[in-house]
Amino acid sequence: MTRTAQGTVGFVSLGCAKNLIDSETMLGRIASEGFVLTGDTTHADVVVVNTCGFLEDSRLESLDTIRQLVSLKVDGQIKRVVVAGCMVGEYKERLIDEVPQVDALVSVNDRELLAGVLTELRGSGELARNMKISDPDALGTVYDDRGRFRLTPRHYAYLRVSEGCDHTCSFCIIPQIRGRHRSKSMDHIIEEAQELAADGCKELIIVAQDSTYYGIDLNGEKQLAKLLARLDAEVDGIEWIRVMYAYPNQVTQELVDVMASADKILPYIDMPLQHINSRMLATMRRGGNRELIERWITRFREAMPNFRFRSTFIAGFPGETDAELQELVDWIKEGHVDRLGCFAYSPEEDSHSAQLDGHLPDEVREERQGRVMEAAQAVLFAKNEALVGTQARVLIDSASQDPKYPNVGRTFADCPEIDCEVYVSTDDGEELPSGSFVDVQITASLGYDLQAKVIAER
Predict the structure, then answer these.
(1) CATH 3.40.50.12160 occupies which residues in the chain?
(2) Considering only 134-143, 400-409, 411-420, which range has the smallest mean pLDDT?
C-alpha cells in the first residue's frame, strides 16, 4: 500500500551522540509513516527540535533554537513547532512558560510516539492535548534503533547498547531524564549492527550512558566484552569498532583481553574520569580512586602497546582545592591521557552537587578549566609532533577546503567530531571517496591536527 504524504517535517538535532541516535530513529519512524523529510526548516509544515537538557548551557541553546523557530511560525513560514528530547519532562514547565507557542511536547522516553503526535497536529494544535511525557522511573522499554534515517556520514554510525543509568554521580541528572539502566538483548544489537553494515557503515561507535555496565540487568553479569567479541566475529563489512563512555570501576580484565585480541576492536577507549584526586572522586560519587584508574590504564597499555586513552574532566567542582586541581594538571602533564576534554563545573539545581558546600565563583571554575586544557594541549601537541615521519592508516571522512590537502580523515586514535583530524594529500591532488582507508606518511603536525601524504590506498 502506498502511503499518502502527510506533510513536510524539518528536524533540528541538538546534544550528544545518544541524542543523535534518538533523532535518527525518530526520523526513520516518521518517514515510514508517510511524512516527507526536508532540510529546509524555514518552510516545513512542522519542525521538530530534539533538545538537550543535560546542562544549563545546553538548555539555553535548546531554548534559543526553539525561539527562532517559533518566530518563523509567527511569521507564517512554518505551521507547527514540536519540542522533543531530554529537555521535555524534567523541564516541561519551563518550556511551557518560556515558549508557550510550541504545539506539542514529546519526552525523550516517548520518542516512538512522535509520528502519532504529528498526525494529531494536522487537526489540532492544543498543547495540553499533545504532551507525551512518561515517568522515567516507570520505564521498562529498551528502544529499537533499527530503521534509522542516518544523519552521520554513511561510513560511520553510533550503536547504542543500553539506555538510562543506575549510577548516582553527584553532578549528573541523566537518571532523572532517561530513567534506570536497561540493556538491549545481544541478538538485537547484532541485528542493528548488521543493518548498519549493510547500509555501508565501516566504523561502529559503541555508546551508552555507561557502556561497561552493559548486560548487568540481563543476567547479573557485565557483558560488554562478550558483545564486542560477537560484533567482531559476526558483523561483516565493519572494519573499526570503537568503545565510548566506559566507567572506571566497571571495566573488567575480560574487556581488556577482548580488545587486545579482536581484529576489529580498536585499541582506544573513552572513559570519562572527571577527576584524578581520590577525595574529589568520592565527592563526585564516581566510584573508584586514583589507584584503580591508574591500574586499569596500565593494564590497557600493557595489553595494547598502541593503546589510546580518551577522557573528560570537570574543573572547579564544589569544595575542590587549588592543590587538588593542580594534582589533576600534573597528572595530565605526565601523559596518562592521549585525548581529553574538560568542562568548568555547571551547578545543576536538580543534582546532588548543587546542595554541596564550597561552590566556587564562575571565574575560578573557568580559570581552572583553562589550566587543565593548557596542560592537555601541551601533551597532545608533543605527541602529534612525535608522529611526524611515521606511517598510519587513515579513514577518509570528507573533502577539505585546502587544495593541497583535499581530504580529511582520522586515524584509529580519533573519534569523529571530538578528536584530531588528518589532512591528506595525494600525488595528483584527487579527492578520495569518503569511507575509504588509506595508508599515509605523516608529514607535519598542525598542533591538534596532522598533515599526511598517501602511500597506498584500498
Answers:
(1) 8-134
(2) 134-143
Residues 140-164: pLDDT tens digits? 566 788 889 999 999 999 999 999 8
**Helices 253-261/290-303 angle, 10° precision:** 20
d(CA 162, CA 183): 4
pLDDT tens per residue across span 58-108? 889 999 999 999 998 988 888 899 999 888 877 888 899 999 999 989 988
* pTM of the entire predicted model: 0.91
Q: What are phi and psi of 343, to 5 degrees?
A: -115, 140
Q: Which helix (H) or strand (E) holds 328?
A: helix 322-333
CATH H-level, domain 391-457: superfamily: Nucleic acid-binding proteins (2.40.50.140)
Q: Please tell me the distance from the alpha carbon of residue 97 to that of residue 340, in angstroms, as a whole number.
A: 37
Cell 544489537, residue located: 189
Classify burial at 389, counting beta carbons within 10 Å of its beta carbon; exposed 0-12, middle 13-18, buried 19 or more.
Answer: exposed
Whole-angstrom distance between the N-terminal and C-terminal Cα of the chain? 42
Q: Which of 368, 428, 434 is nearest to 398 (CA)?
A: 434
Contact 121, 82 (CB under 8 A): yes
The residue type at 344? A
CATH number of this structure's domain 8-134: 3.40.50.12160
Burial class of 274 by CB neighbour count within 10 A (0 to 12, 13 to 18, 19+): buried
Write out the DSSP string of 139-162.
Answer: --------S----S-TTEEEEE-E
CATH class of the 156-385 domain in this structure: alpha beta
